[in-house]
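quick one
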Amino acid sequence: MRSSRKYQREVPALNTERLMGYTHREIGTDGLEYKVHQIRSGQKVYLCPGCNGTISIGESHVVAWTEEGWFGAEAGARDRRHWHSGCWNARGRRR
Ligand SMILES: [Zn+2]
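structure w/ zinc ion:
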């Protein structure tokens, strides 16, 4: 009797997180846990929600999203935003 058991391996649940090596978590000002991913060099121009300025191609910045929003993890990830690193760090101080 042949067994295929040896080909079965445990697959890590959060593969994407492993690919995104610089992702870490932090608690936002709204009390939700955010995933924050450092981008070393942007591929596109992004609009920063912190200052409404643009993030240039090649500029290092962060991407942040939450999986604890009302619409779930997928919607949160789809709704991720690109921020200047400084704007993301300073966001809690804005009123
Ligand atoms: Zn900004």
